Amino acid sequence: MKRDVITSVIGIIVFTLFCGIVYPLFITGVSQVAFAGNANGQKIYANGKLVGSKIIGQEFADPVINKKTGKVEMSDGNPVTTPDPRYFQTRPSGTTPPDNAAGTEFANYGPNSIVTEAAIAANIQAYIALDKARNGTPYYPGGLTPGKVPVDAADTSASGIDPDISVRNADIQAYRIAAVRHLPLSTVDKLISQYTAGRGLGFSGEPGVDVLEINLALNRLTGGS
Questions:
Q1: Is the bond preceding residue 146 a cis peptide, omega within 30 degrees?
Q2: Fewer CB atoms inside 10 Å of the end CB: C or N, the chain?
Q3: What whole-number distance in Å separates Cα of residue 216 and Cα of residue 184?
């Protein structure tokens, strides 16, 4: 009996040390040497300052200021924001607040749900509204209709924090970006091509444009933060 207890204790200690300390440290060391970028979250820096991650979406928006109080409007404890037209916008986010990497989630509603229908309709209208200048003139030639809005501009993803958008989505937004930043459309189109990643392993998924990286490139061209 005593021998069995001693053997069990030794086994627990040995496996705890190996599985709980040695093995994790070994894997961490290998990942830091061989895949440092991926292991550390593919962080992106601009002028020595951490600005985000290549694999996590983020808002490019301005806070809404209440004209009466002069303070930022709040909703459920979070600031109300409006998309900044100078930047490419990510796809709609299902997290609270939007693009919240600390609480990824998705709406667990079916395709025929009234809630889903209302959310998609609201996203489509917001996308179309962003395409219009202050005088109501659309940036996209001929204007946008619901049928022209890309799927990734109408619906959220499973994670709610996608870092990229479809090429079609970027091509539509390019007209707004070029007009607001006073850039030739061809210049913006070249950036889209430059920051478009191909399919995973050459066959999985669809090509995507990394929103953070292309927005940083825009800032380098015409300024911004």
A1: no
A2: N
A3: 17
